[in-house]
């Protein structure tokens, strides 16, 4: 019930006012039946913009950290995300991927829409990154179509670290459904999962026009963080002018 209050009374009208979203290809989203909407992920606002413009309810898999914050604020945040149709998924440990797949298949088994970001995390620089194969596993196991979706302009409106979004229009573009029945019975083959995932990411790329990076976003983030740390430390542990930390000299 509260999902629809957010959608039609509280959050939905506010998001439409802030972002003035232009919707393209909405006819590709089925009016009934299970389906996966797979999109790029550029902004925190993506979680709420798509539900605000879709006619049907959509459930997203969201990181568990949104649901485990301490104190009253943490409980309110968790309640808000659940009300907005988000399901917590623990992304740590070896079983994280399988847990996400189980949750997603549970949504699809009810004939509902499932929203997923194959990149696994928000893009930190506006580029499109390599997709994880969980989306392919769910599509093949549930035997449902995948509708590619591109969020355009949300990175500029609310880049990582910006709490209050800028007032600027965005576009939400849906592509034709992708159907993978030709791979029936092959959902456990790694090569098939990779091929299906790459096809989905290629469709998203065609809609978004982003630069593509054939690496996982989390890996690139970690690499850039390590480079930044090394640059700050300087050679042989030496820090730049701000830190003035040099290797300790031996006593004479």
From TrEMBL:
Residues 35-154 form the Phospholipid/glycerol acyltransferase domain. InterPro entries: Plipid/glycerol_acylTrfase. GO terms for cellular component: plasma membrane. CDD domains: LPLAT_AGPAT-like. One of its GO terms (molecular function) is 1-acylglycerol-3-phosphate O-acyltransferase activity. It comes from the Bacteria. Transmembrane segments: none annotated. Residues 225-252 are annotated as: Disordered. GO terms for biological process: phosphatidic acid biosynthetic process. Pfam families: Acyltransferase (PF01553). Keywords: Acyltransferase, Transferase. This is 1-acyl-sn-glycerol-3-phosphate acyltransferase.
């Amino acid at each position: 019930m509260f999902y629809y209050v957010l959608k039609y009374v509280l959050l939905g009208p506010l998001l439409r006012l802030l972002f003035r979203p232009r919707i393209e290809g909405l006819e590709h989203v089925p009016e009934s039946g299970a389906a996966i909407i797979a999109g790029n992920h550029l902004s925190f606002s993506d979680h709420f913009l798509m539900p605000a413009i879709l006619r049907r309810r959509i459930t997203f898999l969201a990181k568990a950290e949104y649901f485990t914050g301490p104190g009253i604020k943490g409980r309110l945040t968790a309640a808000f995300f659940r009300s907005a149709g988000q399901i917590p998924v623990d992304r740590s440990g070896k079983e994280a991927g399988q847990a996400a797949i189980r949750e997603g298949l549970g949504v699809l088994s009810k004939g509902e829409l499932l929203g997923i970001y194959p990149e696994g995390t928000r893009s930190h620089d506006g580029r499109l990154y390599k997709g994880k194969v969980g989306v392919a596993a769910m599509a093949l196991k549930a035997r449902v179509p995948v509708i590619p979706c591109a969020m355009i302009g949300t990175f500029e409106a609310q880049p990582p670290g910006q709490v209050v979004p800028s007032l600027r229009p965005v576009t939400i573009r849906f592509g034709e459904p992708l159907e993978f029945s030709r791979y029936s019975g092959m959902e456990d083959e790694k090569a098939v999962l990779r091929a299906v995932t790459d096809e989905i990411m290629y469709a998203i790329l065609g809609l978004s026009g982003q630069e593509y990076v054939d690496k996982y976003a989390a890996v690139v983030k970690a690499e850039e963080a390590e480079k930044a740390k090394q640059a700050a430390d300087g050679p042989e542990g030496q820090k730049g002018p701000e830190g003035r930390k040099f290797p300790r000299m031996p006593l004479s």
